[in-house]
Amino acid sequence: MRFFPRLLLSNLLVILLAVGGMFAAAELLAPSFYREHVDRMAVTMTGMVGSTHRELRSDLEAGLRTTLNRALLASLPLAGGVALLTAWWMSRGLGRSVQRLDEGSRALAQGRYALRLPETGKDELADLAHNLNVLAGALSRVEQGRVELIGNVAHELRAPLAALRGYADAMEDGLITPDRAAHAIAREVGAMDRLVRDLSLVSRVEAGRVDLHLETLNPSDLIRALQERFRTSFEEKGVALHVTASQLPAIHADEERVMQVLTNLLANALRHTPAGGQVRVRAEAHERVLNVAVQDTGTGIAPEHLTRIFERFYRADPARSRIEGGSGVGLTIARGLVEAMGGQMAATSDLDRGSTFSFTLPLYTLAPHSVTPAPAPPQSA
Ligand SMILES: Nc1ncnc2c1ncn2[C@@H]1O[C@H](COP(=O)(O)OP(=O)(O)O)[C@@H](O)[C@H]1O
Ligand SMILES: [Mg+2]
């Protein structure tokens, strides 16, 4: 049975039971209220008119009972009518709310995420409508992300594929030597390979399924290794690299992943800093976390881009970044890895002055066996 008729019927049943109960109670309880008065009246009146005491008493009792029942019966249509109307009105209101929720959840189930339910009132049904709306919003964002992701992947693959076709055609027409073509093809295949590996890592990071090998690490060693790795690239571009990272307490993290994060930040800083600029890597222990900041004196990021650079495939300057080799998911991966290790990442930037990317990692003493979220770094986006 539908919700509305069931609710109405149950309300009617309650009304019927209440009326029955009222008559039964009047029948059972009322005599005990008036019996004493009837007795006293009968005593007084028997003296006056001379009829027998018992007869008058039962006569009076019967009269009172009939009067009471008549009064109850007379009030029944009005009281019953009001009760019926109220029951119908309330059942209809509740029935309508439930029907709206039913339609809303059905729309969600069918993938229509744009529908929003009215959130009138302050009861549990309004809470439920609100929660359904929140759910619809979340699902619609997920759906939008899915569509964007497919579009982005197709877009990212198009460029290397077009290049490969170009080289194949050029070789066929004898415009480039097989040697040069092989070299160029290997480069494009390398870019595609990187993209596919990045994508696979992004999906694992976003699903929270990265395999971490957490161990006790000396951050100074990691940063020194990083400095070695980047020395020639910085020298070739003419950008100075300064590192401040000595006497640091041990951290609890995955060495390869920390290096991946640092490599990403440093590669970005180098890419966006012109010759003559500086990049500074600073690591300090703050209470229970290590805070690492990579600061550059490069192009900086405009505020409207800064809020979005951690999104996958987002590039502040698409044409330039693509040519110079980034797939636009580096920061998404970096932040995901840092969060998986129990830290947080943030960015600040001044357009034309430079940017600072900072992240935290838990110190060894904090979590030798478990990963817990650490406080945010001092700068935040
Ligand atoms: N240090 C930086 N200075 C200026 N812009 C940056 C810096 N780091 C990142 N960005 C911007 O953020 C975007 C996203 O970075 P990232 O996710 O690493 O992707 P990619 O490096 O592949 O372009 C970059 O395309 C760039 O526009
Ligand atoms: Mg990058």
Describe it for me?
This is histidine kinase. Residues 92-144 form the HAMP domain. This protein is 63% helix and 11% strand. It is an alpha+beta fold. It folds into three domains: 2-48 and 55-112, no CATH class; 144-207, Signal transduction histidine kinase, dimerisation/phosphotransfer (DHp) domain (Helix Hairpins); 215-362, Heat Shock Protein 90 (2-Layer Sandwich). Strands 2-4-5-7-6 form a five-stranded mixed sheet. A two-stranded antiparallel sheet has the order 1-3. A hairpin with a 3-residue loop joins strand 6 (345-350) and strand 7. Helix 2 (53-109) packs parallel to helix 3 (124-172), helix 5 (219-237) packs parallel to helix 6 (255-271) and helix 6 (255-271) packs antiparallel against helix 9. The longest helix has 57 residues, at 53-109. The radius of gyration is 40 Å and the shape is elongated. The mean pLDDT is 87. Residues 264, 267-268, 326, 330 line the site of magnesium ion.
Helix and strand arrangement:
Elements: H1 3-49, H2 53-109, H3 124-172, H4 178-206, E1 215-217, H5 219-237, E2 240-244, E3 251-253, H6 255-271, E4 278-286, E5 289-296, H7 303-306, H8 318-323, H9 330-340, E6 345-350, E7 354-362
Parallel strand pairs: 2-4
Antiparallel strand pairs: 1-3, 4-5, 5-7, 6-7
This protein binds adenosine-5'-diphosphate (ADP) and magnesium ion.
Catalytic activity: ATP + protein L-histidine = ADP + protein N-phospho-L-histidine
Protein name: histidine kinase
Subcellular location: Membrane
